[in-house]
Predict the 3D structure of the following.
Amino acid sequence: MSLNEFQRNQLIENREEAQTRLLRWFEQQARDLPWRHQRTPYRVWVAEVMLQQTQAETVVGYYERFLARFPSVEVLARSSLEDVLKAWEGLGYYSRARALHRAALQVIEDHKGELPSDPAALQSLPGIGPYTAGAIASIAFGIVVPAIDGNARRVMARILALPDPKQQELEEALRLWISETAPGAFNEALMELGATLCPPRSPRCLLCPWQAFCQARNQGEQETYPAPRQRKPIPHYDVAAAVIVARRCSQDSAQMLVAQRPTDAMLGGLWEFPGGKREEGESLPQALKRELQEEMGIEIHVGQLLIVIQHAYTHFRITLHAFICELESGEPRCLECQDFQWASQKEVDALPMAVTDRKIAQAIEGWLES
C-alpha cells in the first residue's frame, strides 16, 4: 500500500521545515547516552542490538560493561558463547546475544573484520533485520536509509493519521523526509521523539517539534493512532525445578547439579536447575520426577519447597517452584540438555543463567548458610 497524492504532497511541502525542526530539537534535547559518544560501526551495532525490545535506560549499564569486556568485533568473535551470555545476563532476549556472537564470527570470516555499510549486506548477518540495518547504515556510515522501529512507526502514524500503517507507507514517507546530509541524526532524532515526547499514552504534544505537521493532533485524537493491536491471552504455566545438592559437608564443598539448555532452544546456552512444565493432571513433584527422568535419566526424591518465583516472558507467564531434591538412582547424562555439571556455589555464580535460575541460586546460598 502506498501513500495517496495528498499525503505525498504534504510531506514534500513540509520536508525542509520538518528536517530543520527535528534536528534542532534533537541537538538541544537529546539524552546523553553512551553509544552517542563514539559512533563507530561496532559500538552502534552493539547498541542497536541491545536496544531491540529494551528501553535505553535499562541498556546503559549493560552496554558499558559489554564494551569493556568485548571492546572490538575481534575480541567478541574470539570469546566463547558462554562468556557472551554471562555478560548479557539479566538483559533478556538472549537470542540477541547468540546472534551477535554468530554475526561477529561472520564479520571476521566474510568481511575481514569490518562491518559492511550496505543495508542488504548488514541484513545477511544474524540478528540484523531491516530496522537494525537501517540504523547502523545511517548512524555509523551516513547512508540515506530510514530506520523504522516502534517509536518511528508510532510518530509517523500520528503525523499521517494512519490507524494501521504498513511498512511500505512508512518507508515511502520517511524517504521523503529523511535528511540527505544527516540521515543518522534524523533517524536517531525520530526514535528519540517517539521515546520521549510521543509515547503510546499521554504524548507531550506542546513540546513536539512536529506538532504543526501532526494530523492526529489536528483531529484531537493523538492516542487513537496507531490503532492498538488486539492482544492474545497470555498463557500461564507452572514449572518445577530440582535443586540437587551433593557432598554437603560445608557451603564451600556443596555441589549442585545444573544443566545447560540446548543452544537452539529458548534461553539457549544458559545454565539452569533442571526441570520443566507441569502437564495436566500432574502434581509439581510428579512433573519434576518425570522431567528429570526424561532430561537426564535419573530418579529423584522431591523434598521441601525452596522458593516460588513469578516471571513474565513476552508471550507467556510462569510460576516457578524450586524444590530441594535428592538423587535416588542413575547417573546424570544429557538426554535433552546440552551439557551438565556438578558446580560449587562459586562456579554457579560464574555461569550464565536466566533471572529465574539466578534467584534460585541466591535462595540456595541462604539455605546452605542456615
Remarks:
- The domain at 5-224 is CATH 1.10.340.30 (Endonuclease III; domain 1).
- The radius of gyration is 25 Å.
- The chain is about 45% helix and 15% strand.
